[in-house]
Amino acid sequence: MNQSRSSLLGDLDVEVTLDAPIGSGTWFGIGGSADILASPRTESSLIELVTRCADHSVPVRVLGGGANLLVDDGGVDGVVVQLNHEHFKQIRYTAKGDITAACVGAGVNLFDLVQETKRRGLHGVEMMAGIPGSAGGGVRMNAGGAWGQLSDCLKTISIVSLDGTHHVFDAASLGFRYRGSDLPQGIITQCTISLQEDDPITVGDRVKKIFQHKKSTQPMADHSAGCAFKNPVDPSTGRHVSAGALIDQAGLKGRSIGSATVSTQHANFIVTSTGANATDIRRLIDDVREEVLSRMGVTLEPEVVIWKRSDHT
């Protein structure tokens, strides 16, 4: 791909890093490098970059805040796009009565979004407290938990498709559901959310309550990418059941492969210690799935996204 690098990126307003160690920047803190990491400074340069990649049949991946992601030890090919320049990290507010619309760039950190809206006394995204990652990644996976999910306040999503065209979608038309939606492939550039005016102290108390609960029940101080598995649906009730409870009931808390371990605090978290690699985590994920299927009769679906070279699904 050396010959195509200049034709793809040479004249664009894009910051380029070759052989970028993206694995170390994920929440797991391990894994390989990206052959090309590209950080566009504007939406127009993003569109041109994606268009050229499509024209040259170069695969594109999107790196958000590095949460919920495991990069294979062998790294990844193609172009990894990261929207970490200021253009994609802005929050713009428009008030109408007691309702405020916030236009949130895809590169905005979810922690910063929660803190900023709390400071302004805006209610609507407290459920994101303690959830790592970027706004774009949060929209893509419909991040959330027991207090709600991001789609609860989503109004519109802007996407640059992988052929370089720009689209704006009404969130209500996209079938948002637990950890999924009918959102098409592409790169989320921004979203708008609906917020309500509230007392800043009241909003702050909600954020504090949610964060303290997560801190007491999840291994937030350890190297982890959040929940390892999606909560499966019980076919007899149609309701989601706790993946962590199933893993616990299967007797797998503390199960280790290499330096990757099923957390003893919350069984749906895989934590790492010094010397861990991505292969350890992948093997442990497979081991847990096999054991839960064998002992509990339930197939767990990974929530952690795994990037591997030449695998672009």
Helix content: 25-40%
> End-to-end span in angstroms?
20 Å
Percent range for β-strand residues: 25-35%
Alpha plus pi helix count: 7
Could you tell me the CATH topology label of the largest domain: Uridine Diphospho-n-acetylenolpyruvylglucosamine Reductase, domain 3
* Pattern of helices and strands: HEEHEEEEEHEHEEEEEHEEHEEEHE
> How would a crystallographer describe the biggest sheet?
6 strands, antiparallel
- In the CATH hierarchy, the architecture of the largest domain is 2-Layer Sandwich
Describe the structure.
- The structure is a single chain.
- With 313 residues, the chain is of the alpha+beta class.
- It has three domains: 2-86, Uridine Diphospho-n-acetylenolpyruvylglucosamine Reductase, domain 2, CATH 3.30.43; 89-217, Uridine Diphospho-n-acetylenolpyruvylglucosamine Reductase, domain 3 (2-Layer Sandwich), CATH 3.30.465.10; 233-307, Alpha-Beta Complex (Uridine Diphospho-n-acetylenolpyruvylglucosamine Reductase, domain 1).
- Helices cover 27% and strands 27% of the residues.
- It has seven helices and 19 strands.
- It has helices at residues 2-9, 43-55, 110-120, 135-141, 200-217, 243-249, 278-296; strands at 14-20, 34-40, 60-63, 69-71, 76-82, 91-96, 99-105, 122-123, 144-145, 148-149, 154-160, 166-170, 187-197, 233-234, 239-240, 256-257, 260-262, 270-272, 305-307.
- Strands 6, 7, 8, 11, 12 and 13 form a six-stranded antiparallel beta sheet that branches.
- A hairpin with a 2-residue loop joins strand 9 and strand 10.
- The chain is globular and about 50 Å long.
- The model has no long low-confidence stretch (mean pLDDT 93).
